Amino acid sequence: MSHTFLALTLSLAAACLARSADLELNGRVTDENGAPVAGAIVTITPGDHQTQTGPSGAFSFLIPTGEYRIAVRREGYYELKDRPLHLENSQDVTLVLNSVREVFQSVNVSDQPSPVDLSQTRQQVELTGTEINDLPYANSHSLRNSMQLMPGVVEDTSGGLHLNGSAENQVQYVLNGFDITNPITGQFDSTLAVEGIRSVDYSSGRYSPEFGKGTAGVLAISTENGTDTFHYTATDFIPGLQFQQGVRLGNWYPRVGISGPIIRGRAWYSDTFDSEYTTQLVTGLPSGQNTRNGWTGSNLLHAQVNLAARNILYADFLLTVSDQNRVGLGALDPVSTTLTVRDRQYFGSVKDQIYVGHWVMEFGYAHDEFVNRGTPQGSGPYVYSPTGRSGNYFVTADQTAWRDEGVVHVYAPPFSFLGSHLIEAGINGDLARFEDMTRRGEYQLIGLNGQVISQTKFSGIANAGVNDPTESAWLLDTWRIAKQLQLHAGFRQDYDALIGALGWSPRIAFSWAPFAAGHTRVAGGYSVTHDAVPLQPFGQVLNELAFTMYAAVSGVAPAPTPTTFSLGHGLKLPRATNWSLSVDQEVATHVTISANYLRRRGTEGFDFVNALSPDAPPSLLPLPNGTSPGDFQLSNLRRDDFDSGSITVRQTFSGQHEWMASYTRSRAVSNGVLDFNTLVPLAVLPALVPMPWDAPNRILGWGYLPLPWKNWSVAILADLRSGFPFSVEQQTGVVQGAVDSTRYPMNFDLNLALERIVTFRGYRFALWGGVNNATGRKNPTAVNNTIGSPQYLQFFGDEGRHFVVKIRFFGRSKTNK
To answer: What is the separation of C-alpha 651 from the centre of its chain, rounded to a whole number of angstroms?
Structure first.
């Protein structure tokens, strides 16, 4: 017994001596501008020691004296590999990661880290600037239009974006951590040059409680920083040509980007200017009346100033100006029915990041302003008829909104308890103001025999003012339970003073690497999310009254029926529960297969319900026709369901070449009678029906691939999806049969392009020639859906085959490694 006790004592003493011989290695990971890189995986070999950096970029190890190799990897940065480390005494090290920069030169991406990253528990889809510029999608180089390159994102026939089956106002849009969502509509209306964008990340289902004003997720846009080296680019400085019904000036997107130091080693800037001239041909209309065009210009300035070694100041300023003509032009909507739309956005933000020991604190403020003016072509009545629309649109929009936002974000020092923990918390306060001076005129409904069925006029003072203070608080614990298992647990609280509602949002997510090799990741989670309150419906409640007059029967005209809008009682924040699961497998170097499942159940969504006639049949008119007065009350009776399963294969090569293929099976349904141009529905159905953007099946594939000849590449985009649903209506506008029970034909786009990189006098150019809709498929965008019309169920808006030619200028020839 004594011998056993002695042996145990000696063993413990030897272990303590060995432990005391370990040395402390402290370090910090930063980017090239000295800003900390959080969430970086630091590995030391031999011994396979591994840890993750905190928000200050700090890490630490206790390891014996010896010779080691240290490596650091983080998504969005070039990996630091096999750096030699001689450890003889306790020491501090600083490791610098260079950002992956999409500067459209000869970039070698072979050193990027594995896409299977255990630290990422979010269900995330990322789009890089290179993909936006290299792939041949319609209206190319538009950040907004490029989002359809993401699996799960579709664009409807009117240009609206729908991410994972959501309405556009069910997603929060942020720029460098600040909300840039239009507070009037809840939509994404900002124009940004892609050269100034580091990444666009769409997270849904499970994501940090730092973001919470979107039941369908958050679209986070991060900008590029300047460096100590001057960089500049110019893209699309020569307009392209389109060969469609003759040769025409194509869409033109001249963009200029410049970045560099303000004070070397201390302050940097990045400035990008985006100018867009767009032209669209609508088939089926007379020559000269079949095109619409417009100009949009924006400038984004981003700056970073290192006030001290651990005090960094960031600032952004965005200005967007847009003038669009003939908005709404379509095969069934001639020029007279269109609008001239002028939009303005002014956004500015500043954020101070302070490091005190291992504490990190961020304080930020942003101001955002939106101005929208929509002017019809004339003041005549707007006419709905079985053969389409005519006359002048009946709404003159005049809306302005401001939002002031304050943010505080605090990271606590990491600590250990049954693993390592990183606690972060924050508060957010917004004050939004909306002024609506929209004026509405008159619209008429014409029957099959040309008679006037009804006439609706608006009266009253169009001057509404709405204030909406909101506040939020959140807490998140990132718990690294073991080397191969990480858990995110947190909650969020939102309060909206406009409706006096409080919403709680618990969040939990996990990420697990079941095999030691680390090439497989299983992640999943559950979350409760809420939507922001769009201000437009509240302006509508305070706006004009509507009176509908019906045709005389037996020579007697009935009295006009008034329609009013009002607020219901006890309004709540729209809410959704989200379940998600994903499996990522790296099958070879830079070849990944991902399978994703998402289940979202949205409740308490906003809709207007006719309190005087709640069982009235659904209608597709601006105001549902009825022979009795209506009082449409804003309520929380809307329900939206979404289910999707997808599988994606992706491979990246050196020189920016890559390809992706995915299949998505989904279901997007609602009990609201929705329209592409309607923010809030005007009726609630007894059953769920497909949303107008529901696409149950979608196969998406794209690639930017090298050819056998040097500096030659081919770009391919193939997009096959189910046709969108639509409703069939009677001549009175009332839906016949089930809502959205009929569909457009299957939609298929095949776009091809060849690109040749040339160098002239030390400068790089790309010559691009391609064909969109190479198969010539019709892909209609409009349909006559009125029963009894001579053109009933005839489709319009033939896309046609068209050719695109463009030239890009990349700046001086150089290779980034």
So the answer is: 23
Strand partners, 122: none
- What φ, ψ does residue 120 adopt, rounded to 5°? -95, 105
Q: Identify whether 192 is part of a domain.
A: yes
Pairing of strands 735-736, 742-743: unpaired
- Which domain, by its residues, includes 58? 2-99
**Backbone phi and psi for residue 733, each to the nearest 5 degrees, phi listed first:** 90, -10
Confidence bin at 248 (pLDDT 50/70/90): low
Residues belonging to the chain: 817
Q: Are residues 534 and 430 in the same domain?
A: yes
Contact 646, 662 (CB under 8 A): yes
Please choose, from the candidates 531, 535, 662, the residue with its C-alpha nearest in 3D space to the C-alpha of residue 604.
531
Q: Assign 13 a pLDDT band (cuts: 50, 70, 90).
A: very low
Closest among 633, 714, 639 to 669, alpha carbons compared: 639
**Both structure tokens of 510:** 């996990």
33 and 154 both lie in a single domain: no
Q: How far apart, in whole angstroms, are the C-alpha atoms of residue 44 and residue 590?
A: 23
Same domain, 63 and 159: no
Domain count, the chain: 2
Residues 480 and 598 in one domain: yes
Per DSSP, the three-state class of 266 is coil
At residue 795 the predicted structure's pLDDT band, cuts being 50, 70 and 90, is very high
- Report the predicted TM-score, pTM, of the whole model to 2 decimal places: 0.86
392 to 49, 286, 338, 443: CA distances (angstroms): 71, 18, 7, 9
Whether residue 228 lies inside any domain: the answer is yes
